């Protein structure tokens, strides 16, 4: 037994990605990013140890207190270098730690610069500018420690001037410029990365907006078609059914008691036209206001009345109905069962007039709703009307909409059978 199929999704999607967030990456890209972060952390750790050996080694000319500070400072800087692996997850915290330690300790500014690149990619406003200024100041301090040391990397790059010489002392005036040149690429990289992330987010938002607009256009088109169908039904079919009901009523009054059979036939035509007119008006209301449709209508409890009406109109119907609790069944399933029985009886009266038929309906929570309608084939029968070929298709669609199954066709016994099964869904 299967349950009713779930309602389809409306297909609408809204982009909620914050500005500056990174687009989702594939597993291979995440692996490469993690590998690069680990390699960058190892490089920072090596430079930290190199700076500690330069400022705190046996060849250092700094006072012993500074040498001890340089050696001790290696350990927290190594910890910060390891934390750089998670710099994109905690950019502000790691940037503050790296910058503060770079200011307080004679060490390399690379961890602070790397943390700054991650922070400028994730933050904006005063936080970004404040940390850029703090990192710039920390870089100046670090470069000053380097210029003051006996083995200066900056002095080596500028010609290898000796410690205490005029050329070495002149480097102190160049340090702010060198610090700015060092900070600028890392800050620019972070800003560029943020711009790219915002661009990707905007593109995804545009795609989502285009999809939503297309869905909205489709919904508007469907709404227009519904209203057009409602107008056509009201202006043509409803008007003609009203005319049929009016003429049948006039015929019933005209015949009176002179011909009981003609009066009964006219009354049957009038009642059938009136019922059909009520159904058409109900369909028109639903087409114009789909939210009014609740699946309610004729159901299992109305099938006996449907069969009685067919018998009164001269159709030979033999019925077996076993329903556990008709009122407990879902209105949509019960209505589908009613319409299948109604259409099957109409098909027999239209295509095999005079043929007898049997209706076997069994319904319950354990077994579902099983409908079997069989009529004998009448080769010499002439159809009373020409159908559009939509009766069997409509019954099949009704069964499929509630999650059931449908079969129809000739049997080896020379009969035509309609068999449908619908799942029992409680109210």
UniProtKB/TrEMBL annotation:
GO terms for molecular function: ATP binding; phosphorelay sensor kinase activity; protein dimerization activity. It is an enzyme of class 2 (transferase). Pfam families: HisKA_3. GO terms for cellular component: membrane. Keywords: ATP-binding, Kinase, Membrane, Nucleotide-binding, Phosphoprotein, Transferase, Transmembrane, Transmembrane helix, Two-component regulatory system. It catalyses: ATP + protein L-histidine = ADP + protein N-phospho-L-histidine. SUPFAM superfamilies: ATPase domain of HSP90 chaperone/DNA topoisomerase II/histidine kinase. Its EC number is 2.7.13.3. The chain crosses the membrane at residues 32-53, 65-86, 93-120, 169-191. CDD domains: HATPase_UhpB-NarQ-NarX-like (cd16917). InterPro entries: HATPase_C_sf (IPR036890), Sensor_HK_TwoCompSys (IPR050482), Sig_transdc_His_kin_sub3_dim/P (IPR011712). Gene3D superfamilies: 1.20.5.1930, Histidine kinase-like ATPase, C-terminal domain. Residues 225-291 form the Signal transduction histidine kinase subgroup 3 dimerisation and phosphoacceptor domain. PANTHER family: NITRATE/NITRITE SENSOR PROTEIN NARX-RELATED, NITRATE_NITRITE SENSOR PROTEIN NARQ. This is histidine kinase. It comes from Glaciibacter psychrotolerans.
